[in-house]
Amino acid sequence: MAKAVRLYETGGPEVLRYEDIEVGDPGAGEVRIRHVAVGLNFADTYFRNGTYPVPMPNGMGVEAAGIVIAVGEGVTNVAEGDRVTYTGFINTLGAYSTERLIPAAPLIKLPETISFETAAAMTMRGLTASYLMRRIYPFQKGDSILLHAAAGGVGLIVSQWAKRLGLTVIGTVSTDAKAEIAQAHGCDYTINYSHEDVASRVREMTDGVGVNVVFDSVGKNTFMSSLDSLKRRGLMVCLGTASGTIPPFDPQILAMKGSLYMTRPALADYIADPIEKSALIKELFDQVGSGNIRIDINQHYALEDAVLAHRDLESRKLTGSSIFVI
């Protein structure tokens, strides 16, 4: 009997239910996949707490890696026995499971150089890092970035990639231990926001100029300090809302702080086009497969421990990437 973590109502981690499920045979355009490893992402909490509304009941998780064990009618992009990974949004919800049915379209074939565990830890984070580094801004050697949550899964990948592009990386962290991790992965400077003023420290580190780009996955608590860290005509990239959604603001503030630009990107819009998705995947797999970028999996959980995993996730105690091992 297959197992899955299911959601029947929104709320805290305690609403997650680990239970038996019937999987069945794949229909047209579907495959049945046996998971080997499943990704744990902060975005998962948004489905659980209702920030991202979905019909109930529903599955949890949007990222996993495993083996195709059955193929439905009309599927041509993968075959039985293929090693695959996937990430997405509503169309991939249900990854917290030992086996499942899933549309074949989001599946990505895994090269032998990438393990299932690495794939589950990096497909969403890595593709996010890929578009941030290669699509969202025309980075030049010597440019600078401010990277919030620098010791997190996306942060560690972005830091390494940024250094390969010759960028100066300033990362924010909450503890000295996380500062050491961030520095070991490419951060030139770290700011402990628990006791340091981020914008003031950025100005000190950049001789008063500010950074070209801010990558802010925290949201409400860091929004203004992020704007104050940018150079004239810099770009504010709002990646997430870990501390809460950004309250409404007058766009005039962007002019007052230096004719700033602002974007709120979503991975789905950077992998919607198959050609662009393939290009981003190739860049990511090449970087990781060659060893240029390493993926640190610092937390491993059993699927039945999803409640604990979500509590740890929301406590900000995790570093690097986290996965469920099946």
UniProtKB/TrEMBL annotation:
Any one Pfam family match given in the protein's UniProt record, by short name: ADH_N
SMART domains per record: PKS_ER
Keywords: NADP, Oxidoreductase
CDD domains cross-referenced by the UniProt entry: QOR2
Database matches in InterPro entries: ADH-like_C, ADH-like_N, ER, GroES-like_sf, NAD(P)-bd_dom_sf, QOR-like, Quin_OxRdtase/zeta-crystal_CS
Residues in Enoyl reductase (ER) domain copies: 11-324
NCBIfam families in the record: PRK10754.1
Protein name per UniProt: Quinone oxidoreductase
Organism: Amphritea atlantica
